[in-house]
Design brief:
This protein has two domains: about 280 residues, Fido-like domain (Fic-like fold, Orthogonal Bundle); about 70 residues, Arc Repressor Mutant, subunit A (Orthogonal Bundle), CATH 1.10.10. Helices cover about 55% and strands about 5% of the residues. The chain is mostly helical. It is globular and about 70 Å long. The longest helix is centred in the last third of the chain and has 37 residues.
Length: about 375
Amino acid sequence: MKVLKHARYNKQYGYSSFSPEPMNHEWLVSDAKVNRLLNDATRKLGELNAFSMMVPDVDFFIRMHITKEATRSSRIEGTQTSMEEAIQNAEYISPEKRDDWQEVHNYIETMNFAIAQLEELPISTRLLKQTHEKLLQGVRGTNKLPGEFRTSQNWIGGATLNDAAYIPPLHSEVPGLMSDLEKLLNNEDLQMPPLIRIGIAHYQFESIHPFLDGNGRLGRLLITLYLVSNKMPGKPALYLSDFFERNRSHYYDNLTAVRTQNNMVQWLTFFLVGVLETAENSIQTFHEIMKLRSELEEKRIITLGKKVPLAMRLIRYLYTKPIVDASEAAKVLAVNISTANRLIQDFEKLGILSEKTGFKRNRIFIFQKYLNLFEREPSKG
């Protein structure tokens, strides 16, 4: 692996800022472990792509993957919203948790927006600025130049620049560095495997820290956007924030090691392990979804006789949002509230839904077995 020769710490007034070197150039990956992991991760992504293309109505389930990614990525930044809370409607969230809930939902909306924009725009500073503006809309950070590169110094960790854990480059360096990053992501003349390219690009984005707020979330979202744009996989079914969140100290330590020790090999090793583990976990989740779906639709729901068509519409809605109340079900199914209540009671008897409040009124029902598939810890290979 090429040694980073031009990255440096620059002495400023009272602190030192880091200036990463430009990255739009050839990279020779000669480390045997990195190459082995690259081959394994690329092959596993191919399996995930094939599997996601085979799953009927796969977009239903991908919405839950996006919700999980939003929850985990936001948790790295300090929010406390659980996945169960994230899929509930706003009126059921306690006031003290509402801001965190809104940040998670902003991330979900931003992810969907950015993926849709890929139909019209390449991955570019323009797309990243648009995505950043949406990410900070109406939440904490809304006064920190949404959609615009920073015009002042920022830092990570510590109360001030004097005790910061990391100080990114001066704001005057940001436009040039981001232009170089855009070229790295789109330069077809570079003979660079896509996973190596996005691994390096994620490190570079986090090192530049081009915005005043939201850099962590946007940098992780960048990984998904790049993989989707390169059809790795073709459906947005791979998200690394859960891996980063479970290995948070290693995540930050490995990014730091590139800056302080020129150790890009260790960062790429960690990144590729994350891709491989996450792809394996996604495939396992899809397998378990299909097993559960077969059990419910072919053995349980089929017993409802004339109600089967309506029941199938409800179960497909629950695949996208596995918490529901009677009024929401009635609206989705275009039926009256009493019909919705009876169908929910049928789902309770079939062991699909369970009531979670214990109240007589304002009752909420949860599709717990399905939700558990997204909340479980990944198995260790």
